[in-house]
Design goal:
Chain B: It comes from Natrinema versiforme JCM 10478. Chain B: It is a multi-pass membrane protein. Chain B: One of its GO terms (molecular function) is phosphate transmembrane transporter activity. The complex is a heterodimer of chains A (307) and B (537). Chain A is built from 12 helices and 10 strands. By secondary structure, chain A is of the alpha/beta class. Chain A has one domain: Rossmann fold. A 6-stranded mixed β-sheet of chain A has the order 6-7-8-3-9-10, sandwiched between helices. Chain A has a 4-stranded antiparallel β-sheet with strand order 2-1-4-5. The chains are: A alpha/beta (307), B mainly alpha (537). At the A-B interface, helix 4, helix 5 and helix 8 of A face helix 15 and helix 16 of B.
Chain lengths: 307, 537
């Protein structure tokens, strides 16, 4: 399984070196460039405390405790602590190679497919550590749907694409109805209702990505993970996907990784900022992050001074 | 910036950069290409000339066919090439498909004549149908018992295949051969045709019509075939293996409405042949005294060159290919799937896997004569199988092509994008579900292409057959996998050492041409499959 660029240890190390240098200049903080003894890890606990009141409005679905991820000897995540609330959109932003995709892939254990990846710490889904020995990753992934960066429909018909999850999960029911419902919720039904038997690859890029979203929601998961779902799309398709994500948050917990800070500001309720070295620097309500972040590094990143 | 006042010419007009070495290199490469092509082509022309002896025909015969066949064909080719490329594509397939399907019909005929009798085949079909029904019914009744379901899925077909065929064959009354063929070949093909058309047209009625038409036309042979001088048996095979694919293709071209002009090409060729034959018969021109004629394909080998035929080796090659398809492909594809999808790629086990993969590559380069010795030691000395049988020949050549099958299948599987595997795992699919639903369907065209090319290699192998003791001459086509057989290249080798020059030049050339045509067709099929599925992206 090839790692995508985000989690490639080589590119990560490069970013770490350059950004670490810039960051110590900006903060005038020499320790900040050392990923292992970073004092900002402590401050992330403060963020958790400050996030707790707003998090208590809604139930926590996913929480990580002291989560470390390594690719061979390279550390991709450093003791991440986060509480992701139910039925809201949580955006994860940060520069390239900061580990945001890695974190997303930890949630549904997609990193199991990367032989080099090793996970320490706890990641709790509905109160259960998903890395416990008695957790079957396949069962976990049936509860947590995923949409990938590049649209990746199967070379099957549109109908078969949407029913794929139902087939492999052995879901009973009226497939025609489920397909129509999933495609409607993915805002694709009106465009494809007359060509359900044609190949999913015949659709445009934006339609393909909405098909992938329909495929992910068809088996009715609890959580939907999105790994930069709009990064390969043009602005019109992007805005459609964004509208869709806001609608989805009424029923699902959505965790979305994005490069695009405006996008995070537009659609998310909560925002987590990962910075170089794989540390979660700040996690709070989106308004707070974009208007009055606690950390100078986050402000620098958001205002475009680095990253 | 660069607005320096240049007094001379514009840049580069006074001194161009030298291309001499590049040109020389290009010419050398072109020369190498031409040398390779020309040397092979000359050899082929030489052999074809020996096999067909076109110059032994009357001048009138040659001129007649040039006028009736060659000129119209060339004219049409020119038209397609310059004016209507789409029709040209149609023309190539419309001419090739009938030829290929006719040859396939011959292959099926040989199989049903010598290898599996119609009754055996029918009883196998009945057994599998019963097994499928039992498995399906069990799945309906016991929906959740996974292990039990798996055991039923494996055990019932095996039990059915062991018990039911013998039971049926021991019945006191069996239907006529034609009726058995109707039930066991025509009906399944009609069902497949109906399903295919229904899926293509998304219309139940069209599917039913296509299936019904296939059935009716095939069944009409029971009454009509004797009128045109064929047995109902051959009629049905022609309908099912030749007419059905050609009909489906013609229908699809007409429906698409693009390149319909290409359909005229096979008519032109066939018409040219008929006109040529009629005219030369009427005027009494003698045709070429060709070594490769119908008699050569249907007669057994003989001591006199004029009577020598190729039929038993043809049957032997078909039998050997059957053994190879059944033995090498499942093993090879299975190994490829394991190495690509399951084998560890890190740690000590990963290194072992790397070592194995490197050595599979090495095995692909081991000379075929060595595999012959291996087959001799393994299957004949150790395994106790009879020497020179189709079974041993097929097994030995299977060993030889196994590395090729594994490597080409591995390449096809690793060409499946990882994003598709991720999508599948992300939907909560198990590894098995991912391999079955995503990886294998996507890799199948590539696997098939590689396997067909490996078959092409297998059908031409000679040395292993010599070592395992395939007889120099087989006068009666083998009727079982455990009787002595000869294959096409083995027979050609025999002819090459005959003293009579007519064998060495004429009969041998005819055999070589037959072998090459079979090879070309197989490689052509592989290319068509590859192109068909590549274009989709």
């Amino acid at each position: 399984m090839t790692r995508d660029q985000m989690t490639d240890p080589d590119s990560r190390t490069d970013n770490q070196a350059t950004d670490g240098g810039r960051e110590s200049l900006a903060n005038n903080d020499l320790e900040g460039s050392d990923p292992t003894t970073d004092p900002l890890v402590d401050s992330s606990i403060d963020v958790d405390k400050s996030a707790a009141p707003s998090g208590s409005e809604s139930r926590t679905v996913i929480e990580s405790r002291d989560l470390d991820v390594f690719y061979d000897d390279v550390q991709a995540l450093q003791s991440v602590d986060i509480d992701i609330p139910a039925e809201q959109v949580t955006a994860i932003i940060g520069p390239s190679g900061c580990g945001k995709s890695t974190f997303l892939r930890c949630i549904n254990r997609m990193n199991d497919l990367v032989d080099a990846a090793r996970v320490d710490g706890e990641l709790l889904f509905e109160g259960k550590n998903v890395y416990d020995d008695d957790v079957d990753p396949v069962v976990l992934r049936r509860k947590i749907g995923m949409v990938f960066q590049a649209p990746n429909p199967f070379p099957k018909s549109i109908y078969d694409n949407v029913t794929y999850g139902l087939d492999v999960q052995g879901v009973d029911g009226d497939y025609d109805e489920i397909v129509e419902d999933a495609l409607r919720r993915a805002a694709l039904w009106d465009e494809v209702k007359d060509q359900l038997d044609s190949s999913g690859l015949d659709l445009s890029g934006g339609q393909q990505q909405r098909l992938c979203i329909a495929r992910a929601i068809a088996p009715d998961p609890d959580v939907i993970l999105m790994d930069e779902p709009a990064s390969a799309l043009d602005p019109v398709a992007t805005s459609k996907i964004e509208d869709l994500i806001e609608d989805l948050a009424e029923e699902y917990t959505v965790v979305i990784v994005t490069h695009n800070m405006q996008q995070a500001a537009r659609i998310s309720d909560k925002t987590a900022v990962f910075l170089t070295g794989g540390e979660l620097v700040e996690f709070d309500d989106t308004d707070k992050i974009f208007e009055n972040p606690e950390h100078d590094r986050v402000e620098d990143y958001i205002t475009g001074k680095f990253g | 910036m660069a607005t320096d006042q240049r007094t001379g010419d514009w840049y580069g007009t006074d001194e161009a950069v030298s291309r001499l070495r590049g040109q020389a290199f290009k010419s050398l490469c072109l020369g190498a290409t031409l040398l390779a092509l020309v040397s092979v082509f000359v050899l082929l022309l030489y052999v074809a000339n020996d096999a067909f002896r076109p110059l032994s025909a009357d001048i009138g015969w040659l001129l007649t066919f040039a006028a009736s066949l060659l000129l119209p064909t060339l004219g049409a080719t020119g038209y397609y090439y310059t004016r209507d490329a789409r029709a040209g594509e149609t023309a190539a397939i419309a001419l090739g498909l009938p030829v290929v399907s006719l040859l396939l019909t011959g292959g099926v005929f040989i199989t049903l004549e010598h290898i599996v009798t119609v009754y055996q085949w029918a009883s196998i079909v009945v057994a599998l149908a019963i097994a499928a029904a039992v498995v399906f019914a069990h799945g309906r009744v016991r929906t959740s018992a996974d292990l039990e379901r798996f055991i039923v899925l494996v055990a019932v077909p095996i039990a059915a295949l062991v018990l039911i065929p013998d039971l049926i064959l021991s019945l006191p009354m069996l239907p006529t051969e034609a009726l058995a063929l109707l039930g066991s070949v025509v009906v399944p093909v009609a069902v497949v045709v109906g399903w295919f058309v229904r899926r293509q047209r998304e219309n139940d009625r069209d599917g039913a019509i296509a299936a019904g038409l296939t059935l009716v036309v095939a069944a009409a042979g029971l009454g009509l075939a004797p009128v045109v001088g064929l047995s109902p048996f051959v009629w049905m095979l022609l309908v099912v293996v030749t007419a059905v694919p050609v009909g489906l293709y013609v229908e699809s071209v007409v429906r698409r409405g693009a390149g319909t002009a290409g359909l005229a090409f096979p008519v032109l060729v066939a018409g040219g042949v008929i006109v040529g034959v009629v005219v030369t018969e009427a005027l009494g021109f003698a045709g070429p005294n060709s070594w490769l004629d119908w008699g050569f394909l249907t007669d057994p080998p003989s001591r006199t060159p004029e009577d020598a035929g190729f039929y038993p080796p043809l049957v032997g090659s078909v039998m050997m290919l059957l053994v190879i398809v059944v033995s090498a492909f499942p093993v090879g594809v299975g190994a490829a799937v394991y190495l690509e999808e399951y084998a560890p790629d890190r740690g000590w086990w990963g290194r072992l896997v790397d070592l194995i993969e490197v050595n599979i590559g090495n095995l692909a380069g081991v000379p075929s004569v060595v595999y012959g010795v291996l087959g001799l030691a393994l299957f004949i000395r150790q395994g106790g199988l009879g020497s020179g049988t189709a079974l041993v020949g097929g097994f030995t050549v299977s060993l030889l092509i196994l590395p090729i099958v594994i490597i080409s299948s591995q390449e096809a599987i690793s060409a499946v994008p990882d994003s598709m595997r991720e999508a599948s795992y992300g939907m909560g699919a198990t590894r098995w579900q991912t391999v079955r639903n995503v990886v294998l369907p996507e890799a199948l065209p590539g696997i098939m292409t590689g396997n067909i090319l490996a078959m092409g290699r297998a059908i031409g192998e000679t040395a292993p057959l010599l070592i395992i003791g395939a007889p120099a001459v087989v006068r009666i086509a083998p009727d079982s996998f455990t009787s002595k057989f000869s294959a096409m290249p083995r027979q050609i080798y025999t002819w090459s050492s005959e003293i009579d020059a007519a064998f060495q030049h004429g009969v041998l050339a005819a055999g070589v041409m037959t072998l090459l045509v079979v090879l070309l067709l197989m490689n052509g099929a592989a290319i068509i499959i590859r192109n068909k599925y590549q274009r989709r992206d």
